[in-house]
Amino acid sequence: MINSVAINRPIGVFDSGIGGLTVVKEMFRIMPNEDVIYFGDTARLPYGSKSEKTIQRFAIENAVFLSSFGVKAIVVACNTVSAVALDFLRGFVKLPVIGVVEPGAEAAVRATRSKRVGVIATKTTTRMHAYAACIKELDADVEVYEVAAPLLVHLVEENWIERDITKEILREYLHPLLDAKIDTLVLGCTHYPFLSNVIKEIAPNLTLINSANETAVSVRRLLRAEQLVSEKPSSGSIRIYLSDSHPDSARWVADFLGSEIPIESVEPHHFSS
């Protein structure tokens, strides 16, 4: 029997910062009637330089915070948590949980023609070889080249996307991947799609894999399988919580999502276990 109350509950989404809003935007595009509770743990980013144990603890704390809103599913819009703690979190949370690595890997395998795929991601995601393992499982013939690009998270959070220094740093990160003759690049952090236009300037022939779109499609598939698709006739809403709000956060979010959305600040002790 379908629980109509559960169906119309919000979807919980968390990331280490604001990058996960790329996933939310794609979710609203294909599931416009769903409500979303978003938590960006901006006070503790970047996750990509933290230990596995710390990342697991953060993941649980974030999930507990979202669960307090009665969410019907949790989307881990963070590549680092998806790489390190997804199975751990699924064992802890009695809700459907979906990450971003598997959808992005599947898209990369579909897209590559030369079977040479590059990945830029955080230090932890590359150290765990999360994308490489997933891609190899899907197609053992694909060669995967990974580069850790930790500075990009800070540049996006500061909205330095169009600055010359950002372009120079991107060129440094992309250099070994372009030398490897890749034809497809996985943006292995939800912050990185904001840099897509700059990457295209540097390497116009690359196919870019934005895991945000692929993850949104996977979320829709999961909700359908679990019979949790919203029945509300009205458009979905979003509530955004940040553990540390930058003075420009509200303006940046409004520009990105296309409307002014209040941002609520949450002190770490309010969501930690």
Describe the structure.
The protein has helices spanning 4-7, 21-30, 52-67, 79-84, 86-92, 101-111, 123-127, 130-138, 151-157, 164-179, 196-202, 211-225, 249-257, 268-271; strands at residues 11-15, 36-40, 73-76, 97-98, 116-121, 143-148, 184-188, 207-210, 238-242, 263-265. With 273 residues, it is of the alpha/beta class. The strands form two sheets. Strands 4-3-1-2-9-10 form a six-stranded parallel sheet, sandwiched between helices. Strands 6-5-7-8 form a four-stranded parallel sheet, sandwiched between helices. The longest helix has 16 residues, at 52-67. It starts with a helix and ends with a helix.
Low-confidence stretches: none
Binned strand content: 15-25%
CATH architectural grouping of the largest domain: 3-Layer(aba) Sandwich
Level of helix content?
Answer: 40-55%
Q: Give the structural class.
A: alpha/beta
Which characteristics define this entry?
alpha/beta, Rossmann fold, six-stranded parallel sheet, four-stranded parallel sheet, 46% helix, globular
Task: Walk me through the topology.
Elements (H helix, E strand, L loop, with lengths): L3 H4 L3 E5 L5 H10 L5 E5 L11 H16 L5 E4 L2 H6 L1 H7 L4 E2 L2 H11 L4 E6 L1 H5 L2 H9 L4 E6 L2 H7 L6 H16 L4 E5 L7 H7 L4 E4 H15 L12 E5 L6 H9 L5 E3 L2 H4 L2
Helix pairs in contact: 2-12, 3-5, 6-8, 6-12
Short description:
The chain has 273 residues and is α/β, with parallel strands linked by helices. The chain contains 14 helices and 10 strands. It folds into 2 domains: 4-99 and 214-271, Rossmann fold (3-Layer(aba) Sandwich); 101-211, Rossmann fold (3-Layer(aba) Sandwich).
